[in-house]
Specification:
Four Helix Bundle (Hemerythrin (Met), subunit A), mainly alpha
């Protein structure tokens, strides 16, 4: 792994964990000092993440995490629905005991952030599809979605419904019930995005 790859991996993991709030700046000099590297590979890594839509760049202000937006959430939610449903459909026949055990462990989430545990569960259920590119895109979308998921879980009453949906999804995958798993995933994705979009629209009106 190159230095740029390692920096990109580090920042992507931080975004998945929700460690950078919406609108927060990622300063090249601070990242370089923290990671013990020069600013040149940091700049390239941030540009890669910007190309994936995870960061935005402003003249003389550098990179920052996008602010919460109805339009952006709509785009992320639509892409997740398309990609993750097909990942799940392809993965279920190939799920191993290890995949299911990893998903079960992620449901506990005791040693990780809520958004990281969420990604680990979904990743465990999608990985058996064997779609390397598709899984990479799904991870980028989860990183972009992290601030919205935190809002949903912490402020909009989404924690209990999300946990129940995850358990139902895992049960359907364990039973190799493709139709039930896809139906559950669709409900899971739609409930969260619809709740947050409704909230953001109300905030815009105020």
């Amino acid at each position: 792994m190159s230095t740029v790859d390692a920096i990109e991996r580090t920042v992507l993991d931080e975004l998945v964990r929700g460690e950078h709030p919406p609108g927060s700046a990622l300063r090249q000099d601070e990242l370089a000092a923290r990671l013990g590297v020069s600013k040149i590979p940091v700049r390239e890594a941030l540009q890669r993440l910007g190309a994936g839509g995870l960061l935005v760049f402003e003249t003389n202000r550098g990179a920052r995490v996008p602010v919460l937006s109805v339009d952006e959430l709509g785009e992320i939610a639509t892409l997740r629905r398309v990609i993750e449903i097909e990942l799940l459909r392809a993965a279920i026949p190939n799920l191993s005991i290890v995949d299911l055990a990893e998903a079960t462990h992620a449901l506990d989430g005791a040693s990780t952030s809520a958004t990281e545990a969420n990604w680990h569960l979904h990743r465990a259920l999608y990985r058996a599809a064997g779609w390397r590119r598709g899984l990479s895109v799904a991870e980028m979308l989860h990183a972009a979605m992290a601030p919205y998921v935190l809002l949903y879980l912490r402020s909009l009453g989404g924690s209990d419904p999300s946990d129940l949906e995850h358990r139902s999804l895992l049960d359907a995958c364990t039973e190799r019930n493709v139709d039930a798993a896809i139906d559950t995933l669709e409900v899971h994705l739609d409930n969260a995005s619809r709740t947050v979009i409704d909230f953001l629209r109300c905030e815009e009106i105020r």
